[in-house]
């Protein structure tokens, strides 16, 4: 029996085609750029590691969730990505308060975090079982 789904049949069904994943990747790149500009101190190294970890976790969990076969596993990874988005936003606020990030840059990145979080919420609600092509 051949089971098909419009989602599974899309050519190039990969997380790399997701607007959400690409926006998360750009946010991570922006965070890496900010971390590289910070003075090299022990406390800054700790903060840089944390914010890079949280920012890169967003896209990683979107990708991993996209590759899962069950809606529950997919939703779980999207929820983790949303938590990492909130954590990244928290670190951005701390960097602004510490003087390492301008108010304008923090506002722009905060807005991006909010938009990514909203997209994750929407995508989580839209998770349906993914049916893969089976040539049995």
Question: Helix and strand layout, with pairings?
Answer:
Layout: E1 2-3, H1 6-9, H2 19-37, H3 42-66, H4 71-98, H5 103-125, E2 134-135
Antiparallel strand pairs: 1-2
Distance between the termini: 5 Å
Number of domains: 1
- Strand arrangement across the biggest beta sheet: 1-2
Strand tally is 2
CATH topology (level 3) name: de novo design (two linked rop proteins)
Fourth-level CATH superfamily:
23S rRNA-intervening sequence
Query: In DSSP terms, counting alpha (H) and pi (I) runs of 4 or more, how many helices?
Result: 5
- Regarding CATH, which class? Mainly Alpha
Pick out the low-confidence regions.
Answer: 1-10
Categorize the overall geometry. elongated
CATH architecture: Up-down Bundle
In sequence order, what are the helices and strands, one letter per element? EHHHHHE
- What is the rounded Rg? 17 Å
Mean pLDDT: 88
Structural class: mainly alpha
Portion in beta strands: under 5%
């Amino acid at each position: 029996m051949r089971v098909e789904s419009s989602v599974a049949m899309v050519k190039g069904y990969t997380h790399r085609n997701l607007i959400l994943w690409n926006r998360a990747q750009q946010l991570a790149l922006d965070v890496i750029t900010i971390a590289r500009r910070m003075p090299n101190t022990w406390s800054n190294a700790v903060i840089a590691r944390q914010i890079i970890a949280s920012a890169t976790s967003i896209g990683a969990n979107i990708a991993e969730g996209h590759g899962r076969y069950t809606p529950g596993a997919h939703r779980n990874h999207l929820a983790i990505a949303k938590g990492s988005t909130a954590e990244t936003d928290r670190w951005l606020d701390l960097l602004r308060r510490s003087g390492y990030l301008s108010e304008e840059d923090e506002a722009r990145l905060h807005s991006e975090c909010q938009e990514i979080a909203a997209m994750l919420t929407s995508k989580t609600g839209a998770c349906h079982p993914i049916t893969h092509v089976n040539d049995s």
